[in-house]
Amino acid sequence: MTSLASAPRSTAHRDERIARSILFVCATVFVVGITLILIYLAIAGTRLFFQFHVSPLTFLFSNNWDGADGQFGAAPFIVGSLVATAFAILVGGPLGVAIGVFFAELAPKRVAAIFKPAIEVLVGIPSVVYGWLGLTLLVPAIGQVFHLVDGDGLLAAGIVLSIMIVPTVISLSEDALRSVPDAMREGSLALGATRWETISRVLIPSASSGIAVAVILGIARAIGETLAIQLVIGNAPVIPGSLLKPASALTSEIVMDMQNAQDGTAFQASLFSMALLLLLISMGLILLIRFALRKRT
Amino acid sequence: MVRSAHFAAVILGATLLAPTASFADTNITIAGSTALQPLAQAAADEYQQAHPDVKISVTGGGSGQGIAQAASKGVDIGDSDILAPTHPELVDNKVAVVGFSVIVNPASGVTGLTKDQIQSIFSGKVTNWKDVGGKDEPITVINRPAGSGTRAVFLKTLMGKATLAQDSLVEDATGTVVQKVIQTAGAVSYASFSGTHNKTGLTEVAIDGAQPNDADVIAGKYPFWSYEHMFTNGPATGEVAKFIDFTKSNGALFKKLNFILISSMKVSETNR
After folding, report:
1. Phi/psi of residue A259, each to 5°?
2. Prediction ipTM score
3. DSSP string covering B19-83, please?
4. Stronger pLDDT, A256 or B113, i.e. the higher one
């Protein structure tokens, strides 16, 4: 009896040990891999300053760019990336959270049951599709509305990005709201709060960390977006005088120039610096929001 | 989209195919210029049919990638629109002449321009077509990105000492450039013959009276053309040399794909 009972138990122990070591190895490989990528990017991204002696100040603040001709001012791309991302998050963030609230709290169950999967499908639409539609529909439309010959620019990029991040923000903020315990809702309503007061004073504050994650992922998607931006922003390496003038962004400039930048040139090194900067900006934004959130709670 | 796919393909091609090349002499790997890629691919298909023991892989990635891959021996042949002055070990095998057109949206009302007018337009001095003999329509300039082979040829053959205005639109693919010129009233840009010939909705302009066609390029009247290069690391030998010779003498393919045989040219690059 005892031997029969102990046999499966020791097998279970062994299985658990194996499973644990497999998971440990996976996690280690992943962390080491990411670290190596970061180290490589840190080295390649600073070569422009150490090996080619371009001042970091020139790189960050000059707006003279011609990578093939020794001009490495990346300010136009930094400004372009930040403005397009800010636009996207200012428009797409509140819109996404609002729609998320609607589906989580106000929409009839049947409506929510239809739209929830539909929105999840929207999250997965490849960015080239958004960019292509932007190029063929949105850019000419902007041109007509504002009486321009050409509608390329930060406005087009910002609108495309807004549309792209809204499904992500909806989906995640809805999940965050749904995970607030029903007792909170019932308690609030029992105290005589209206539905709106319940949503704005109880549910949204309780779900704030989840909503913040939704917005962070929206920002991450917006600042890292490449193709959709490249197709509609106009790719002019200048700081534009208005949202309606052609501009450029870090991501789109990297992808456009990397095919022409030869190995070992300052041109290529400058693209790596832009990649490093992009990483630092997105990490910085995420840390900033996490910090702000922790301080509030 | 195409770019990153090409880039991935170059890396994949380099990592997967380079090791196998050492086992058999009959593997040829080619990467680089997307302008030359259609010709290289079509020639590779024909060559493999005639020589079943030879396997040729052709990928894009851009001229810069072609030169880099050939220099690092990641590929046997690096395709490029531009020269490789920083890599003295690379041997330049000129395989074709490619012609380029200055293309305008028909709303501009022009069918021909002088070099001076082109320089004024692309440097930003002239901003309305009526100042260069066209209609009263604002000019929208579209350039290729810094370092692009097509842009380099444009600068060298047409711009002289003039510089490009910074605030123009920039598009990196021939297809996007052509689409933008077609859909934007008053737009102007430039692209290779293979992208601009037989397209409706755009005008290929004559330059100083010479037409953007094979005949005027061959006769030396039309200035906007360039050589396409297949760089090899050291002189080409064996099947690689045979394939390059096969490619550059394949008249039927050249005609179909809008390239021009070097042997038919009445001028060379130095006396264009």
Report:
1. -70, -25
2. 0.71
3. HHHTT-TTEEEEEE-TTTHHHHHHHHHHHHHH-TT-EEEEEEE-HHHHHHHHHTTSSSEEEESS-
4. B113
- For A92, A185, A203, A211, the CA distances from A182, given in Å and listed in that order, are 28, 5, 10, 18
A238 to chain B, any CB pair closer than 8 A? The answer is: yes
Q: Does A267 touch chain B (CB under 8 A)?
A: yes
Q: Could you give the C-alpha distances from B119 to A85, B113, B141, B156, B260, in angstroms and in order?
A: 36, 10, 12, 12, 26
Task: Tell whether A182 lies on the interface with B, counting CB pairs under 8 A.
Answer: no
> Please, which residues bridge with residue A65 across strands?
A72
Chain A residues with CB-CB distance to B140 below 8 A: 149-150
Q: Do A236 and B166 touch (CB under 8 A)?
A: yes
Contact B94, B262 (CB under 8 A): yes
Nearest chain B Cα distance for residue A22, angstroms:
28
CB of A235 within 8 Å of any CB in chain B? yes
pTM of structure:
0.79
Question: Buried b / exposed e across A48-74, counting CB within 10 Å, b at 16+?
Answer: bbeeeebeeebbeebbbbbbbeebbbb
Chain A residues within 8 A of B7 when measuring between CB atoms:
258-259
Q: What angle do CA B153, B155, B160 make, to 5 degrees?
A: 130
The shortest CB-CB distance from A150 to any of B1, B7, B184 is to B184
Residue A223 tokens read as: 């600042």
Q: Kindly state whether A148 is in contact with chain B, defined as any CB-CB distance less than 8 angstroms.
A: no
Computed over every residue of chain A, the mean pLDDT equals 89
Does the beta carbon of A237 lie under 8 angstroms from any beta carbon of chain B? yes
CA distance B84 to chain A (A): 9
How many C-beta neighbours within 10 Å does residue B246 have?
A: 18
- What are the tens digits of pLDDT across the range A133-191? 998 899 989 988 998 878 899 999 999 999 999 999 999 999 999 999 999 999 999 99
Give residue-wise pLDDT tens across range A200-236: 999 999 898 889 888 888 988 899 999 899 999 999 9
Q: Dihedral, CA atoms, B168, B170, B174, B178, nearest 10 degrees?
A: -40
Where do the structural domains in chain A lie, given as residue ranges?
75-294
What count of CB pairs under 8 Å joins A to B? 99
- Residue among B147, B166, B168 minimizing CB distance to A257: B147
A75-294: which CATH number, 3.30.540.10, 3.40.50.720, 1.20.200.10, 1.10.3720.10? 1.10.3720.10
Distance from CA of B63 to the nearest CA of A (A): 6
Compute the distance between CA of residue B135 and CA of residue B106 in angstroms, rounded to an integer: 10
Contact A235 B64 (CB under 8 A): no
- pLDDT tens for A82-118 read 999 999 999 999 999 999 999 998 888 888 888 888 8
Question: What tokens were used for B174?
Answer: 């021939």
Q: For residue B167, give the nearest of A128, A246, A259 by CB distance.
A: A246
pLDDT band of residue B271 (cuts 50, 70, 90) is low
